[in-house]
Every structure is written in C-alpha cells, then in structure tokens.
Amino acid sequence: MSASSARNATHRADRSLAAAGRHWSWAAVLGVGLALFWLLRVALISTGNPNLVPSLIFLGAAVVPVTFVTFVAGRRLDFGVGPGIAAVTALVGGVLGVATAGVLEYRALLATHVLPVVVVGLIEEAAKLLMPLLVLLAVEDRHPADGLLVGVAAGAGFAVLETMGYAFVALVDSGGDLAAVSGLLVIRGVLSPAAHMAWTGLTSAALWSAATGARRGRGFVVFAGVFVVTVALHAAWDGFATTGAYVVLGAISLSLLVVSTHLLASARAARVPLAPVV
C-alpha cells in the first residue's frame, strides 16, 4: 500500500470514528447525567442539606432534554449552526418562551376568566418559536435541518424550566417530600421529548424549510399546517391528561418528528430543500 493510500485509509477511519462518536454521544450524556442525578439524590438524603435541592431539581429536569438535543445533533443531517448556537437557543429560548407564555396566559385568564387548552397550546407553541425565528433572521448560512435542531433546543429549554417550576410547586405542596419530586421529574423528563421538544422541532423545521426553499409560498402554507397540527396535539395533551393519551400522542408526535428528520436527510442527499410534511 502506498503512503497516499495509507493516509486516505487513516483519514477515512478517523472520520468514521468521529461520526460514530457523534452518533452515540447522547448515550454518554444520558449515562453521566443519570449518574450525577443519583449522586446528588444520595447526598441530599444522607445530609438533609436543602442547598442541594435546586441542583437536584435542575439536573432532574435537564438530563433527558439535553440528551435528546444531543441525539438530534448527532443525526446525519446538514447542520449549519453549531453546538454553541444550540446551547444559547435552549437557554435564551427557554426563558423567552416561558416568560412570554406566562404573561400571555395570565392576561388571557384575566380577560376571559377561563383558559381553554387550545388557547394554552396556541400561546405556548407560538412563544417557543420566538428564539428559532430570531436565529433564522440572524444567521446567513441557513440549512433546513438547522430549524429542526434549534426548534428541539428551544423546546428543551422551555421543558426544563417548566419542569423545574412544577417540581418546586410539588416540593412545597408535599412538605418537602423528595419521592413526589423525583417521581414528577422522571415522568416529565421522559415525556419532554414527545411533547414540547417534538412540537417545536416540527414547527421550527417547517419554518426554516419555508424560508430556505425555492417555493416559499407553498412552504409557508405547509408551516401554517404544521403549526395547527402541533397546537392541536398540545391541546389534546393538556385536555386528556391521562397516561394512555400521553402514550398515543407522544407516539404520534415523535413519529412526525422522525418523518420530518427522514425528509430532511433525503433532501440533504439530493441537495434539494424540502419542507417537513405532516
């Protein structure tokens, strides 16, 4: 084998190893996150130190969402945004989304004295899109798959902050019962990829595809349709609020996200922009 062939073989092997590491990095994030959560819980139970409670709540709320964002980022898609933008989107988008949704829902409740689940779904799905829209306007090198990544990141930030709020309320209402808090963190952590993260990933991917595609009129019609579907899924999730409904709606939401990911991957292979379809 010539020196040039050997270098090419080594280069291909390095690229394959790097691709495998990126593909499976989510497993490392999940494993480390769960281990740290367990260590914090053991430390809190053994010491009774209340200073550890915020860390436990944050870690419990963040492990699964961060894992899911890492999982999406490791797919074979044409991403233009890097990990830094995804992290900023999760942080700023989560705060912006939670704050905006909280204010709008409060104002709507004051005005109507009732807050239908459809209104909640409409407000929250729109609020979570604020940061992906800002990123879309700010970057010049736009890739349709970026919408999927920043959407999932924004949904993750929203889910983490919302879960932390619910966990704090559960801690206060239960008189400091860690079992109640841990149970809530597990349930909401497991469900978050099938809820906020999937819905915002779908709508953001459709928005970016519309903005980067050749047929923008059709793209924005598709985006409007995707947005209506995600609001309906959100409203159904809040309205039924049963384990069976969560399973069915979660399966539908994640299936739509998988289909959109497949379409974006196919478009990347064909070098043709393509909007996710539901």
Automatic annotation (TrEMBL):
<keyword id="KW-0472">Membrane</keyword>
<feature type="transmembrane region" description="Helical">
    <location>
        <begin position="52"/>
        <end position="73"/>
    </location>
</feature>
<feature type="transmembrane region" description="Helical">
    <location>
        <begin position="85"/>
        <end position="104"/>
    </location>
</feature>
<feature type="transmembrane region" description="Helical">
    <location>
        <begin position="178"/>
        <end position="199"/>
    </location>
</feature>
<feature type="transmembrane region" description="Helical">
    <location>
        <begin position="21"/>
        <end position="40"/>
    </location>
</feature>
<feature type="transmembrane region" description="Helical">
    <location>
        <begin position="220"/>
        <end position="237"/>
    </location>
</feature>
<dbReference type="Pfam" id="PF13367">
    <property type="entry name" value="PrsW-protease"/>
</dbReference>
<feature type="transmembrane region" description="Helical">
    <location>
        <begin position="243"/>
        <end position="265"/>
    </location>
</feature>
<protein>
    <submittedName>
        <fullName>RsiW-degrading membrane proteinase PrsW (M82 family)</fullName>
    </submittedName>
</protein>
<dbReference type="InterPro" id="IPR026898">
    <property type="entry name" value="PrsW"/>
</dbReference>
<keyword id="KW-1133">Transmembrane helix</keyword>
<feature type="transmembrane region" description="Helical">
    <location>
        <begin position="148"/>
        <end position="172"/>
    </location>
</feature>
<keyword id="KW-0812">Transmembrane</keyword>
<feature type="transmembrane region" description="Helical">
    <location>
        <begin position="110"/>
        <end position="136"/>
    </location>
</feature>
